[in-house]
Design brief:
The chain has 547 residues and is α+β, with helices and mostly antiparallel strands. It folds into two domains: 63-325, Beta-galactosidase, Chain A, domain 5 (Distorted Sandwich); 351-546, no CATH class. Helix content is 37%, strand content 22%. The protein is built from eleven helices and 19 strands. It has helices spanning 3-22, 204-209, 310-315, 331-352, 356-398, 403-416, 423-432, 434-447, 470-487, 494-511, 516-546; strands spanning 75-79, 83-88, 93-103, 111-113, 123-128, 131-134, 141-143, 149-155, 161-168, 174-181, 188-193, 212-217, 223-226, 236-238, 243-249, 253-258, 268-273, 284-292, 298-307. The strands form three sheets. Strands 7-8-9-10-19-16-15-12-13 form a nine-stranded antiparallel beta sheet, with no helix packed on it. The protein has a six-stranded antiparallel beta sheet with strand order 6-5-11-18-17-14, with no helix packed on it. Strands 1-2-3-4 form a four-stranded antiparallel beta sheet, with no helix packed on it. Helix 5 runs antiparallel to helix 7, helix 5 (356-398) packs parallel to helix 11 and helix 9 (470-487) runs parallel beside helix 11. The radius of gyration is 29 Å and the shape is elongated. It starts with a helix and ends with a helix. Mean pLDDT is 78; it is low at 1-9, 19-67 and 277-282.
């Protein structure tokens, strides 16, 4: 058989086997994690009492306090330009953050809320003198005299004073958490972030598939810990700190704790999973990070609680743009392409003042134009190889019993026509060049919030699948038409004809539930390649007429 047939089979296998591994089928939703039915309490300065948190979600409490009921408390709400923050005086913790610029796509008319019900965004405890003291056991007094800051003061069971201040930036999703625990030098502040953020997307399954913790050790690359990997009954303790930052995220939003260059960072992490029933998503009970306190008991770190918007994450520095390690075990190959593609698309959107749908169309055409010379060379190489096939078959038939002589004659044939045995493979390489862009776009569309809710033509959201499967159909039909043109005037090849039918069907099946924008890009790629394929077909026909 023609070796190009085997190469095409190999490429088909790569697509069919690799894509499901990179983008696995999402698990069934967790009813707790996907609860999006209840809005938070309306904004007030000092609002209604807060129900005590469940002990299953609270940090480990000291045995001496186990019989003491948790205190009741009030809520404190502070609004900035971009967000509304709701704090509890019990534990001095942020209960909810509402992102006023982002609409919930799960609850019509509501804004995006980061915290799930009864799951605060941060919780604190102090590990000192062989005991763990949860802040949830303490009622703090709130000072709201500063419009952009809230300070909480309380007393530990031993009489030590604890202070926690939130400095809010009115024009950013970043705020600073600072404070001190009297007499806690050498102790550890334990900071707990939630087991997943609220699901605010129409496809909660897809959103939950992106639930993960991300850890950035000092001097090492960021690495994600998907919730699916926390499928054990034992806590997963990470000791490769200190960490420059740690985060919990879903598809489009993130809550990250960041330390500055002078801080020691979070020394260790404890990721405690909950047991789960078969086929249900793993849902971590909490992730707790230990922050070593200096002699004066003070602490300071920053919290980014907002969208995974590339420009905002980039402005934070500290490699926080890597909070989405694209590509899983292919991250080393995919991440650079995904970052480059995302930056280019954002630049085109800003520079050309076009919607992202038109940006994708222009990007698809531009990729084809740039690759035109390489594809032209590859296609003409294929023409030469096809012209050699009769002579090649004659040599194989003549020397079928003498493998060594057959090889010598084939080498002489290649040399006569200025080619080598590697020519068939090298001639196909330009066809592989678009693949990194295609795979990169898989991940760009998975997490790039700039595409979220963007309409284009009949589509209401290019980051979601095409509800009518129009674009996947156009992609498959255009791919078949491209193959059909390529087969015109070509030597009869049953295997190539099979592939012409099989590949469009395979890619339709693989891409039909992917982002509509991804199918738009691939369809444009196919349509933009038709003129070149048609010119090559005409050139092949002229060559055949001469012979």
């Amino acid at each position: 058989m023609d070796r190009r047939f085997f190469l095409a089979i190999l490429l088909t296998a790569v697509v069919v086997l690799t894509v499901p591994r990179l983008l696995p089928t999402p698990p069934r939703p967790d009813p707790i994690a996907s609860d999006t039915t209840r809005p938070i309490a309306p904004e007030t300065a000092i609002a209604q009492p807060v129900a005590p948190p469940t002990m299953a979600e609270a940090p480990p409490a000291a045995s001496s306090d186990s019989a003491v009921p948790p205190p009741s408390g009030d809520t404190v709400t502070v609004s900035t330009t971009l967000a509304r923050y709701v704090f509890s005086t019990v534990g001095a913790k942020p209960l909810q953050i509402v992102l006023t610029e982002y609409e919930s796509l799960a609850d019509s008319g509501l804004r995006v809320r980061l915290a799930r019900e009864e799951t605060p965004l941060l919780r604190y405890a102090v590990a000192m003198r062989g005991d763990t003291i949860p802040a949830d056991a303490i009622a703090f007094a709130a000072d709201t005299s500063d419009p952009t800051a809230v300070t909480f003061r309380g007393s530990l069971p031993g009489g030590e004073t604890a202070t926690i201040t939130y400095d809010l930036d009115p024009e950013s999703y970043l705020f600073t958490v600072r404070g001190a625990v009297e007499g806690a030098g050498g102790a550890q502040l334990l900071v707990t972030i939630p087991n997943g953020l609220r699901t605010e997307e129409p496809d909660s399954l897809d959103d939950m598939r992106h639930f993960a913790y991300v850890l950035k050790p000092v001097g090492d690359e960021a690495r994600g810990v998907p919730f699916q990997d926390l499928d054990t009954a034992r806590a997963q303790v990470e000791t490769d700190g200190p960490y420059r930052w740690v985060a919990t995220k879903n598809k489009y939003f993130v809550v990250g704790l960041l330390t500055d260059s002078s801080a020691h960072g979070f020394a260790s992490a404890r990721l405690a999973p909950k047991l789960r029933a078969k086929r249900e998503p793993a849902r971590s009970a909490a992730a707790t990070f230990a922050y070593p306190l200096p002699d004066d008991g003070s602490f300071s770190f920053e919290v980014y609680a907002g969208p995974q918007q590339y420009k905002r994450l980039s402005a934070l520095g500290r490699e926080f743009t890597n909070v989405n390690p694209y590509g899983g075990f292919f991250a080393g190959m995919i991440q650079p392409f995904a970052t480059a593609v995302m930056r280019l698309l954002l630049w085109m959107h800003d520079a050309l003042a076009l919607s992202y749908g038109w940006v994708l169309i222009l990007f698809g055409i531009a990729v084809r134009v740039v690759l035109w010379p390489l594809n032209q060379t590859a296609m003409r190489t294929q023409l030469k190889l096809q012209a050699l096939q009769p002579e090649m078959q004659a040599i194989q038939k003549q020397y079928k019993t003498d493998a060594q002589r057959q090889q010598q004659e084939i080498m002489a044939l290649y040399k006569k026509h200025g080619m080598s045995p590697a020519t068939p493979i090298m001639g196909c390489l330009p066809m592989l060049i678009p693949l990194p862009f295609l795979f990169a776009l898989f991940f760009v569309f998975q997490n790039t919030i700039e595409f979220r809710g963007v309409p284009f033509m009949y589509l209401t959201d290019i980051s979601q699948k095409d509800p009518y499967y129009i674009l996947p159909t156009v992609m498959a039909v255009s791919m078949f038409f491209l193959s059909w043109i390529g087969l015109k005037a070509a030597p009869a090849n049953p295997q190539a004809k099979i592939l012409a039918y099989m590949m469009p069907a395979v890619l339709f099946f693989v891409l039909r539930n992917m982002a509509a924008g991804l199918n738009l890009y691939y369809a444009v790629q196919n349509l933009a390649a038709i003129p070149q394929q048609w010119l090559i077909a005409r050139e092949r026909k002229r060559l055949q007429a001469k012979t």
